[in-house]
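Troubleshooting log. The previous structure file for this entry was overwritten by mistake, so regenerating from the original sequence record. Sequence copied from the archived sheet and checked twice against the printout by T.R.
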Amino acid sequence: MALAAALGDGLPAYAAPLDSVAGLTGVESDAPLLLQADELIYDNDRQTVAAVGGVRIDYGGTRMVADRLVYNQRTGRLSAIGNVEIIQPDGTRAYADEFDVTEDFADGFVNALRIVTPDRARFAAESAVREGGETTTFNNGIYTACEPCKDNPEKPPIWQIKARRIIWNGKQKTIRFERASFEFLGMPLAAFPVFTTADPTVKRKTGFLMPSIRFADELGFGASIPYFIALAPNYDLKLTGTGLTRQGFLGEAEFRHRLVNGTYTLKIAGIHQMSPDAFDANTEDATHTDRGMIGSKGRFEINPRWTFGWDVMAQTDKNFSRTYTVEGFDEKVRQNEVYLSGLNDRNSLDLRMMKFNIQETYADGSGSDRDAEQPWVLPSLDYEIYAPRPVAGGELSFNLNARGISRDNEDLRGSPSDDDFATRGLEGKTARITAETQWKRTFVTGSGLTVTPILAAQGDTSFIDASTSATDYSKTGASLTDDDTFSRGMVTAGMEMRWPFLITAPSSTHVVEPIAQVFLRPNEMGAGELPNEDAQSFVFDTTTLFARDKFSGYDRIEGGHRANLGVRYTGTYDNGWSVHAMFGQSYHLGGTNPFADADMVNAGAESGLESDVSDFVGSAGASFANRLDGAVRARFDEKTFEVRRAETELGFRTNRLSASGGFAYIQAQPTYGFDSDRHEVNGRASLRVTDNWKVTGNATYDITNNRLARNGIGLAYDDECFSIGLNFRQSRSSSDALSNSVGFQISLRTIGDFGDKFSGN
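Regenerated output below.
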């Protein structure tokens, strides 16, 4: 028969049985209990109550099933016998042949116990003993996070930890392994007298983390041991000590704090180098003994529209963090900044104060000293706003940009005797404030022709307090204005016309769109007399062909009359293919050509726009069903159609294979210090050989210098409980010096990660 009853005083209110074997949180004592069984037997002589056959108990969200359940009123003990299974509300499952516990579940014994936690971690033991209501001891226990083999459940998992005793403290949330051994594929690899880790339910707990190792010629072998301190639920501290055989002890400390609206971190590191002479002579690393850094990062959401943050670092010398790979602060080029940004619909504001650093090995006064040439930017401001409603039927936008720069050392490329001599940054202080507005409105005719008139105005003022000693600031003779304050303006009237034609076929659709632009404006003022800090990078291709101002920043303004002509094509096919292409040319119609008007960095030289008729630019690409895609971009001489610049990309993807490659060609640019053509081809691929194994490779070949610039190969394995990655990399410097690095990473789920990068020459 089946019974469903609340069992009153004759049988104790069953607390969650798993509490008795694992120390997990129980249920409320007044929770209702439901018992189902085929038969309920009362033995008054022995003072026992037994539930027999298909026993099931539901109590406070916990369910237990067994063949037989017996409660002894005289001894106050509860026994579950035969195929016992306990399921906790959080999904934890426990299996046993038999368990015997006291009625308060403080003490007990379990035979042939298995536990599976919600994150699929597994415990197994010949027996388990519950003591004091907190501690469960597993005898001859096994712990793993790997699922058993479906075809052969008796096969050892990929990894497991066997221990004579595993002690699980439910109150302290720790697991202690005594006389333990680590096994991989059934083979013992390491033995530990004792070690302790947090139980699988704990995400943050004070204790040691997985160690890591490293090697470098100058540092020697090193082992890092991190210690994590959970100070509170929302802040913690990690202390890491690294012993290096050649340089001594490296200490690191990182404090993290999470608040309601953001987080911040504070990190410090330092070392007293034992062997500075292990580094190359006259480098930063060799000329300092006591070295250290302090850095901080933070980001806070003031409200849904405003964000405030910072990323700053200070160190005793310019290369400490990179030499010792201080995580988060070891970039070659580092941008220290404090910022405030806001966004509302299309309107935005970005305010930043920045200091750039180059982490390099050169000591001050020897070789290249790029770090001393990096500026303070105090501040950089970008504010862009769009009118909420149409103005004269069109879109009106306004932009404000301001920038102040202070630099201790001038940043020169080459020297005045070199053909590529240029001044990338002035010594001293400069500032600029720019205001720009634009209005445009699009009209569409009945034939589909779209006509967009454009009106724009820009004005700015530059403040210059420079102490750079050179008279001419580039090989072209550009020199700085004598004015401490220089103002200039620009007004533009333009017209853009687009006429798309739609062509349909039985299995494809095509759009051909001729595009024409014309802009009328006066000549640029002060092109060779003003600093150029933010418009130095310039590439003329199809992405900039139809830009109103093709310069990349505000320090240069495109002036003179110009027309841009081109045609764009897109096609889609029912078989999954899609293609796109663009081709065009730009024409200087009158006034002074700004790209032929040299500045301190010769930004427009050899760009393809320095003549009245520009080079041709084109691009084309195709893709198929998210499996295959490719693109090519090129610039061609306007007279001979000779290729001046070209880039190609090709990618292929399947469920198991992912491959991509590219080729880049740039014609010689003596003005920028490149006296010969540059060719480079690169490729990378990833092949998943099986569901778990993956092979990767990459290579970059410098055709110009006939050498393999970079190459690497990797092998990786991953499954639900274990992953390992191995890789080998080579790189060659411009002087053909070869550098090798070998890296490995091992990850054991629920235990941690182990490994680091080995490098050497």
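The chain has a mean pLDDT of 87. Archived copy saved in two places this time.
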